[in-house]
Amino acid sequence: MYTPRNTRWLRACVAGLAMLGAAISASASINGKMIVGYMPNWEGSASGIQYSKLTHINYAFAEASSSGSLSCDNTSMLQSIVTKAHAAGVKVLISVGGASNGSGLGSAIKNSQSTLVTNIKNFVSKYNLDGVDIDWEGPASSSDGGKFNSLVKTLYGYYHPLGKLVTAAVDTGDWFGMYIPSSSFAYVDFLNIMAYDGDGNQHSPYSLAQNGLNYWKGRGLSAAKANIGVPFYGYKGTSRSSEKAYKDIVAMSASAANLDSYGGYYYNGIPTIKKKTDLAKTSGGGIMIWELAEDATGSASLLSAIYSETIK
Predict the structure, then answer these.
(1) Is residue 13 part of a domain?
(2) What is the spatial distance between Cα 32 and Cα 42, in angstroms, rounded to a whole number?
(3) Alpha-carbon Rg of the chain, whole angstroms?
(4) 98: which DSSP letter?
(5) Looking at the 3D structure of the chain, how many domains does it have?
(6) Residue 154's domain is classified under what CATH number?
(7) What range does the domain containing 238 cover?
(8) Is residue 65 part of a domain?
(9) Residue 18 within a domain
(10) What is the pTM of this model?
(11) Omega before 190 cis (within 30°)?
């Protein structure tokens, strides 16, 4: 026979199991590692996504206004991705911000945070998403870092019991990452380290991936929460206006897939991508990709190279 005490004990057990289930549902991995791909809304089509080789897709971007409102183009593509990704067991997050939205998102985080949080919650719910990725490329002071911490803490407190994710995109520690407090690490499921767009021709060398990973781990981020970002594009010399998709570089010559430079363009070919994937396997949580639509097909695919190296 149940007594009030037994009933309370039973309810506590049920609640505990529910939270455990939520935590389990939030995890997604391939051979214990994450493969996170960003998909920009301006690409127009997501027909080439290899869902079986991904664990998470970050849809980019929902941009914030200074008042905390959100706008996102091509939500029909987002809905299509969510349907196909969920059928394949892949999580889909909305990435809020982006490089061009630094000012708007920054103002919202600092001055309209409660409105921003409400709109993020509404967006995630409306499109049946698995969480939110914060891509604020611009904290410029410790005060800004405190506002970032407040945002991810609030979001994590709401989403973690629901089994949903809170993540963030960060640099390698040489631009704005130093302003993000280590206390924020407890309120993110993982960080996506943008180890590309560095100085010099070789804008994303292996050493930059190492340095970025070591920087965040050195500050106390667990290896399991540190994803190494890799580029699916290249630049001609140091000119950032000369960006070319990896698929277009490979189209110039099949041999380019196994090189890191071709036709004056510098990028990551298959050997370097595999080497970075090995680093992520031994010392990090996985790989992050910017961005999926720039990949080549067939044997030249960088995502396929990441996947094959991950499952070894």
Answers:
(1) no
(2) 31
(3) 20
(4) -
(5) 1
(6) 3.20.20.80
(7) 30-310
(8) yes
(9) no
(10) 0.92
(11) no
